[in-house]
Design a protein that fits this description.
Elements lengths: L8 E11 L3 E10 L5 E10 L3 E8 L4 E8 L1 H5 L5 E4 L2 E3 L5 H13 L7 E7 L8 E8 L20 E6 H10 L5 H14 L2
Parallel strand pairs: 4-9
Antiparallel strand pairs: 1-2, 2-3, 4-5, 4-7, 5-6, 5-10, 8-9
Length: 195
C-alpha cells in the first residue's frame, strides 16, 4: 500500500498502563508528515472521559457563581491547590447538557432550567482525550434550590463563591484565577455582558 492510500493517522499499538480513575495508555502511532513522508511516534494518553462546564450569571447583580476546591496537580507545581473555577464535571455517560445541569445543582445548589451551549474545547490535547462542552445560564442568585458543595461520597468539598463579574475577570490578571475553562468563560462573559 503506498503512502497516498494510507490513512493520515494509524494507531499501530495500544498498551494500558493503568486503568483506575483514569485510563492511561501508551500508543504507538504512525502519521503522515508535512513533507509527505510518514513517521512513528509513541505517546502516553490520559483518558477519563469528557466533561462540561457552565457560567452561572445573575444579570441583575452582574455577578457570577464560582467554586473553590482542592486540585492536587497544581500543588505539585508549587501552588496552594485551592482553585477558583466555574462549576464543571464529567459527563458520566450523560449528554453534556444533562451532565452540566446535574453538576450545577451538586456543586452550587442552583437548579438550571435552561442553559445555552457555547462551544466545545480540548483543554490539553497533547495528552488528554477530554473534550469540554461550555454552557452559560442566567440565574437569580436569591433563588438557590439546594445546598451545593458537591457530593460527600465522591470526596467533594466545594466552597461556593459569588462575586461581581468584573472582579472575577480581574482575578485572571492577578493569577488568582488560573483555570483554563474559567478564564475562557469569564472572557466570553465580558464580551457578552461587559460595558
Amino acid at each position: 500500500m503506498d503512502a497516498k492510500t494510507e490513512p493520515k493517522v494509524k494507531i499501530l499499538s495500544s498498551e494500558t498502563l493503568s486503568k483506575r480513575f483514569v485510563h492511561l495508555q501508551k500508543l504507538t502511532v504512525e502519521h503522515e508528515t508535512l513533507s509527505g513522508g510518514r513517521q512513528t511516534v509513541v505517546r502516553e494518553i490520559h483518558d477519563h472521559g469528557n466533561a462540561a462546564t457552565i457560567l452561572l450569571y445573575d444579570p441583575r447583580r452582574r455577578s457570577v457563581i464560582l467554586v473553590r476546591q482542592l486540585r492536587v496537580p497544581p500543588v505539585l507545581n508549587g501552588d496552594d491547590g485551592f482553585m477558583i473555577e466555574m462549576p464543571a464535571g464529567l459527563l458520566d455517560k450523560d449528554d453534556p447538557l444533562t451532565a452540566i445541569i446535574r453538576e450545577a445543582m451538586e456543586e452550587t445548589g442552583y437548579r438550571i432550567e435552561r442553559a445555552d451551549y457555547l462551544f466545545d474545547a480540548y483543554m490539553s490535547p497533547g495528552t488528554l482525550t477530554e473534550r469540554v462542552s461550555f454552557f452559560a445560564a442566567e440565574i437569580d442568585i436569591t433563588q438557590k434550590a439546594g445546598r451545593g458543595g458537591g457530593l460527600e461520597e465522591e470526596g467533594e468539598d466545594i466552597e461556593i463563591l459569588e462575586m461581581p463579574l468584573d472582579e472575577a475577570y480581574e482575578m485572571i490578571g492577578t493569577g488568582k484565577i488560573s483555570d483554563g475553562k474559567t478564564i475562557m468563560l469569564l472572557q466570553w462573559a465580558k464580551m457578552k455582558y461587559g460595558d
